[in-house]
Amino acid sequence: MIEPSKCAAPAPVSAPGTSKAMKVCVIDHFDSMHLLPGHPKCGVPHGHTYKLEVVAEGPLVNGMVLDFSDLKGAMRDTLETFDHTNLNLLMSMPSCENICLEILTRLKRRLPQKLTVRVWEGDGKWAECSD
After folding, report:
1. What residues act catalytically?
2. Domains of the chain, start order
3. For each successive 10 residues of the chain (131 residues), what is the average pLDDT?
4. Distance between CA 40 and CA 46 in Å, rounded?
5. pTM, rounded to two decimals
6. How far apart are CA 79 and CA 18, in angstroms?
7. Would 13 disulfide with which of 43, 63, 115, 131, CB 3.0-4.6 Å?
8. In angstroms, how far is CA 90 from the centroid of its own chain?
9. What is the DSSP annotation of 77-115?
10. Would you report the helix, strand and coil content of the chain in percent, each value rounded to 5?
11. In angstroms, rounded to a whole number, what is the distance separating the alpha carbons of residues 76 and 64?
């Protein structure tokens, strides 16, 4: 039997003496349709499978920036509004950039951490914004 005094000290749950922030990310997808009024190609109704990346940044608190389940839950709750809907009913110009800004605005109501949101409109095209 090992004596308690001979056991190694437990690893710290936070990096002591450091102010470096860390980042955590969750990714999900949603499908929606939209049209961009006045756009020569995208001015007709069409759909996309969007990929959403949400990055939370901050100091470690009890070993975590943010519990992944809390971040994923906030993202999924927000995406309920955007999934399988006509995005023109949510905003007048549902460009990838405006979708990104709207998602960030809604997430900030729930999460105090610094957030970065990236919305992919298919492969190879994305918009990103941070608070």
Report:
1. 42, 84, 121
2. 21-37+45-130 (3.30.479.10)
3. 42 52 96 97 96 97 93 97 98 97 97 97 96 92
4. 13
5. 0.84
6. 35
7. 63
8. 19
9. HHHHHHTTSBGGGT-SS--HHHHHHHHHHHHHTT--SEE
10. 25, 30, 40
11. 20
